[in-house]
Specification:
Number of strands: 8
Radius of gyration: 17 Å
CATH architecture: 3-Layer(aba) Sandwich
CATH class: Alpha Beta
Strand content: 5-15%
Number of helices: 10
Order of helices and strands: EHEHEHEHHEHEHHEHEH
Number of domains: 1
Length: 279
């Protein structure tokens, strides 16, 4: 079991979950190179080449599985109690969230900040891209080869979703069926502290934040590959993150779905990486 004082910085620029688009691969590298100078990472080797179908419903499944197993080996070798992840697509966050839920034996609130539901299975997915499935996998359902790596699936009661505004019909039905708590952009804009209050109400001793940057309004933050109109203001997200950080039980932060901006002075990214440093 990981120790509370031990920490790993995981660099995992997996892009294949989003289809034939390397935007998040290059975005992850920009985050590391521009905003995390001087920070040591366990780096997961990620191929930039398409290898084509491998007899699976999920795009580039063979490469994804090989990379996933490498990331799992890194976590199981280091045995951290805290994880800061810079990932490519949001599917690069599966193992960090799964590992922490296992070592804390389910005493972990999972905050999922995202424009999308990420709740599809290979059968319900319109695209066959893994980036639409990671949360469903963490809840114990989906492609068996990946779900078997989630030794302690999350309960729906551990999950708080925030900023959703682009859901497939199957995802809407699943949310309703499982009674998963969802905080809207409108509710969080009116009261940014609402998310922190929801975490406290949940009563878990530990907190993991999965942040897809497409939760933001693309008019303010366009540096994402799958932008959805009507997201959170940058200032609102900044306030939310500071509020969650102040709860003092944050054991994991993952940043995903960033495409390059060519800028090294975006205040929000500096804030997020600073928290990652100090985690």
């Amino acid at each position: 079991m990981g120790q509370k004082g031990s920490k790993i910085n995981l660099f995992y620029p997996q892009w294949q979950g989003g289809g034939p688009d390397l935007a998040t691969f290059f975005g992850a590298h920009e985050l590391k190179d521009y905003y995390c100078q001087g920070l040591s990472f366990a780096e997961i080797a990620v191929s930039r080449e398409e290898q084509g179908p491998a007899g699976q419903q999920i795009y580039e499944f063979k490469q994804i599985m090989a990379q996933t197993e490498t990331a799992g080996e890194a976590l199981n070798t280091f045995k951290p109690g805290r994880i800061f992840t810079i990932g490519g697509g949001c599917d690069a966050g599966i193992l960090s969230a799964a590992y922490l839920n296992e070592i804390f034996r389910g005493d972990l609130a999972l905050v999922w900040l995202d424009a999308h539901g990420d709740l599809n299975t290979p059968q319900s997915s319109p695209s066959g891209y893994l980036y639409g499935m990671p949360l469903r996998i963490l809840l114990g359902e989906g492609e068996p080869a990946i779900t078997k790596l989630v030794s302690q699936p999350y309960e729906a009661s551990q999950l708080i979703m925030a900023g959703l505004r682009d859901l497939d019909q199957a995802e809407q039905e699943y949310l309703a069926q499982k009674k998963i708590r969802v905080l809207s952009v409108e509710a969080l804009t009116a009261k940014p502290s609402l998310l922190g209050e929801a975490v406290k109400d949940q009563g878990c001793s530990n907190l993991y934040i999965h942040l897809d940057l497409d939760v933001l309004d693309p008019e303010q933050f366009p540096h994402v590959p799958a932008a959805v109109a009507g997201g959170l203001a940058v200032s609102t997200l900044s306030e939310i993150i500071d509020d969650l950080w102040a709860n003092d039980n944050l054991c994991g932060l993952g940043i995903f779905e960033y495409s390059t901006s060519g800028r090294d002075h975006i205040k929000l990214l500096r804030q997020l990486c600073r928290i990652g440093f100090e985690l």
